Sequence to fold (856 residues):
Amino acid sequence: MTVDTITQTAHYLTFKIDEEYFTVNVHSVREILEYSKITKMPDAPPFMRGIINVRGSVIPVIDLRLKFGMEETIPKSSTRIIVMEIAREGKTLVIGSLADSVKEVIEIAPEQIEPPPEMGTRWKKDYILGVGKYQDEFIMLLDIKKLFSIDELTRINQPCTDEDDS
Amino acid sequence: METDIYKTEAIEILDDLEAALLELEERPEDMPLVNRIFRALHTIKGSGKMFGFDDIADFTHEIENIYDRVRSGNLAVSQALISLTLASGDIIRRMVHGEEVPLAERQAMISRFQGMLQREKGLADPALSSPQPQPRAIAQDKQTAIWRIRFKPGQNIFQTGTNLARLFAELRELGECTVVGHCQEVPDLAGLDPQSCYLSWDIVLTTGRGEQAIRDVFIFVEGDSDIEITVLEDADSVGQIEQHRRLGEILVEKGDIAQDKLAEILAHRPLIGQTLVKEKLVHQSLVKSALAEQQHIRKLSEKQKEIESSDSVRVTANKLDTLVNLVGELVIVQARLSQHSTLSCDPIAVTIAEEVERLTTELRDNTMSLRMLPIGTTFSKFKRLVRDLSKELGKDIVLEMEGEETQLDKSVIEQLNDPLVHIIRNSIDHGIESPEARLARGKVKTGVIKLSAAQSGADVVISITDDGAGLDTAKIRAKARERDLIADGRELSEEEVYQLIFEPGFSTAEVVSGVSGRGVGMDVVKRGVEALRGHIEIASRPGQGTQITIRLPLTLAIIDGLLVETGSEKYVIPQAAVLECFEQTREDIENAHGNNVINVWGQMMPYICLRQRFAIAGDIPPSRRVILCEANGRKAGLAVDRVIGNYQTVIKPLGEVYKKVECISGATILGDGTVALILDPVKLMEERQT
Fold:
């Protein structure tokens, strides 16, 4: 998917990670939860923080700060978990993403979205669909399909070996 | 939508048809089976017509006609007939699935039937066939009925050497049989002649074989004995009779008591049986006999009702799954409620919580039982597989089944199908030898594959046994060396050698046949079984056969576990794997000099430290617990900080994202809403070994 595929004005949920604004189409957002204790999963990459219980279902949580090479998210009162739904191969992947704070839902027209700059951002270009403007700030449209591709998420960390095996 | 319903129904009927045909092959004389087949064909035809599948209806109509002849006794059941019908069933199945079956193929099938009819006719010609009476012609117009037999042998019956027990055994062979003995005529010890028989019996028998068959049983004792045989009623009509005959009526009818005396008693006593005995009008054992008759008929009608009601509601699997999920959530909420009410110290809240707990448990058990199906449905599919494959390979094999009624979760049964197909194919192809080879080895010509299922605790054990050649360990070893699966100089135990056949791509077959030998298969079996949280074992004896045992949990949805804690993380260890718990102090750890071993009753046992394995931060507490687990024949400990207690949990799948995390088999939600991980001890131990 590229920026050209966006042809209609749509609503976007904006949120902040560190000092930067990000946004995703509201159609991908199922709900926004307050931070709750995340159960750590062994053998998973560090940015996969673990799993939480959302009304009886188990949902994995990703830490975008770690994914983007920043420090781990330290939960604050403004920290939220954005639960997103990504349709792939007939199935829906539900995943939670940590955000330092969630802002508001805005309307962006296709002509307001520019292709991602070739350089000059801290973010891996692959994960950015385009760049928009929000209150004089640049705002990154995340390509959640790529960001949450199964290959990336299921990468296994080598388990710590049980040293001195008897 | 409606055609979908027709399709699912038609496929179910076809499955039933196939099962009935295979049974008929074993018991060609069984008329109810022929009727079942006829009914199945008739239903497929009728509903096919209704939903506009005229091709299916027309084709089925032809076969139905043939079974009409079988039903009326004009055509004998033969191997050829069954083979043709099975093949026709396959054609109908293809058509139901929406495939275009060319008219020519259908016509060819029908003309094969006709060819067979011609041949049969030739045989039935009195000039050609021996003038044997057709036994089925007599049997077929006999309806199943309930018979009452009064049997009073002559006093001297023992002197003629008659074994009465054999006689009753013969009666039992005729059908369901209730026997009540009367000993009221046995004299006092002083007057008793030990060589005389003073006993008499009342027998209630349900059989479709007719009076003559019963008379035949008594043929040798007829002369000396009083034998009264009366028909009570048609078994088919039993279910329709609203009220069964009362005890008194039975006694009157049998002439044990006069009608007027009975009426007198009835006037003031409700408990008729006891009263009659008390008034010495009827002997105790006669009442017992009448009661037994009542029971017999009642049982029969209950059975019929059960058959009627057992498949009365059709619910889509999705709805059931939703129900199970909801109940799962209810179990979690209930755990929270219990926890909270205990903390609140409010006696009313505690009582209510307990009530909810009881109801939830019942609801859960009931809901789970909805998803339980007898494994026999899957088993009967294999009959066809064995029949066709053994014919193809020129082997003589029978499939024996045991414990078909064992119940398993629906989803488990579905997923079990493929692994079982692979194992049975292997048994047929590699296991059982050709008839010549078997005879040369001094075995019976016919090979046996036995499929059995049984419940043991929270597990279901399914085993597939064949009496074939067994696994050739030398060959497996050689092949494994060739493929570098065994490290040089390492000697493997028999058990380890057997495990090698589960390696992907492993095959010792020199020739790849159409059936097996490509090496895909056993690794699929292992993965399939493990996906069901089950385990698989092999036992084999050269020349005597192989047994493959699969252990599966009863249900995939709920697990009994031990809740433990390490750092701030909570884990559940499946109770089935837990053997014992031990305390381990800092001192113990220091004494082991950095080795992860613990002294268990004088034996050094390796353990896995969860804190190390899962890289959990923090210090080991001064005293912690090591839980000794056993899985797949291996023993090892799991070191945790604290044991919280038993926990029955609903398993939540981890989803695709964490599918590669092998040592965790699922997650569960605790009373406080947080998530605990369910450990897979088997995987943890395997990891340790490599």
Summary: The first helix of chain B runs from residue 2 to 26. Chain B touches chain A at residues 325, 328-329, 332, 569-570, 594-597, 604, 606, 608-609, 612-616, 652-664, 667, 669, 673-677, 687-688 (CB under 8 Å).
